[in-house]
Amino acid sequence: MSTLEDRYRRLLACYPAAHREAHGEEMLDVLLSAARPGQTRPSIADTADLLLGAARIRLRRAASGTGASPRRDALAITGLLAALLLMAEAARFAVDVPTLIGAATAQGNGTIGIYGLLYFFGTGPYWLAWTVIAVLAWRGRRRRAATAACAVTTAQIAFAVYGTALPDHSYAYLGRDFAGTSLPLALLATASLAASPGPRRGARLLGRARLAGAATVAAALLALHTYPAFSLLTGGQTGVDPRASMDRLIDAAQTMGELRAAGALVAAVLAAAALARDRTSRRAFVLLALVGAPALVNAAGEALPDSVPGTAMLLPGSLMVGTAGLVITGLCVRLVESPAGTRARRRVRSSA
């Protein structure tokens, strides 16, 4: 094999395996026949043309949902679960609207000004946008859903960076609202819409039982994060004496934080159990760690306020925690799969 042929084969390796099997040798013959005498390296034009062609084919296959692979299937499962959690967050916002209206009206002495609208309802358009995206994706309009998701997530990233980098500027609080758990959820859902067969494929891979379980867990987490649940915990009132009222609120907030931490931990355990039965599901669980690790850290911060540094719950710290969770979970999955893989290889060798 000549040096030039070897280098062309490395470039052709960027194409999907099915495309290489059907057209690889023909493409290689054309490239070698067009080479100059004594040429040892692909030209810049040929290199760029091959790489762009590989990117176009892979993007076209991703957009059409063909050519499913374990990784893309795992991303489809992850995207479905991320979208489900985003819809739970949207439902939480809708449930909290009456309480938010009361708080905004009280702060504005009977009226809701521009500041009150932005402070209490500034994330409303975001949840509405993701609801529309979820409906488009489930109805099979995946290309439109992916385009809308990319636009919404790009705006969310910009707001999150603004609110985190410039905390003292106008409406920075709104940017910090976009830098929470919803950001990694949006990133996973957007990546799934752009590069996987889509949520319907994820639903088929999960099956009805696991999908119903995921919806139940999402509903339970939704209930624990609503103002009505907090009001129910305090009995709907905080007492007459202001000091007693504040003490009761503090105790209720501590209890609610502990309940949320327990809910997040139980959700993580159930997700691990439900997604541990096959390789594709295990890879989906690894991707979910990007969201699950910061969520667990934030829940621990609510339950044990002095146990988690405040920086771990801001945007840079949250991303670092999510990345660490992704790496650690991936290593754990590899350790779990390694003995099974070794036994399978031994059985193949013995049968051969």
TrEMBL record:
Keywords attached to this entry: Membrane, Transmembrane, Transmembrane helix
Transmembrane segments: 74-94, 114-138, 145-166, 178-197, 209-230, 259-277, 284-301, 313-336
Official protein name in the record: Uncharacterized protein
